[in-house]
Give the backbone structure.
Amino acid sequence: MLVGLAPAAHGGNRTGRMFTGDESGNWLFRALHTAGFADRPESIHRDDGLRLTGCYIVAALRCAPPQNKPLPVELARCRPFLLDELRLLHNVRVVVGLGKIGFENALKAYRDLGRVQFARMPRFAHGASYELGGLTFIASYHPSQQNTFTGKLTRAMLDGIFAQVRRVLDP
C-alpha cells in the first residue's frame, strides 16, 4: 500500500485517480510498472485501463492543501476516511509512505487502529524500513516535481524503494 499526501490539484483531483495526469504520477507509475505492480508505465485518466496488482494507493488528505502544506486540523478531519480505508484492507504487508507526511500519517493511522505501537515516531529517511505489528513500513521521498527536478529523488532511488518492497513480499 502507498500512502501519499493528497490528490494533486491538477492530477488526481482533476482526473479522479490518485497520481494520475501529473508529473508525480508519471514517475510513480513508471516505477510501479518496473517493479511489476502496474500493467503499464503511465496513468493518463481513470478510465485508461491501468491495472494495479498487489498495490493500493491511499492519501492522508481528501483534497489538495494550499502549497502542499496541510494544517494539523486538516489531517485530523481527514483521518476517519483513511482509517475507514485501512480497515477494509486486510492483506497489507508493506506500507510505503510517500513523503514525510504520508509516512507519518500511515504510522499514526495504524497506531490509531491498534495495529502498531511505538513510543517515538520512527524517523523519516528515504529508504528507511521499520517492522511494526507484522507490517513493514518503508519511507520514500515523494515523487513531486520539487524532488525530482532537483535530483533529491532520482528514478534509481524510486526504483530502489519498490525493489525493497519486492524483497519483503517475495523473499
Summary: The mean pLDDT is 89. The chain has one domain: 2-169. The CA atoms of residues 17 and 46 lie 6 Å apart. Residues 72-88 form the longest helix (17 residues).
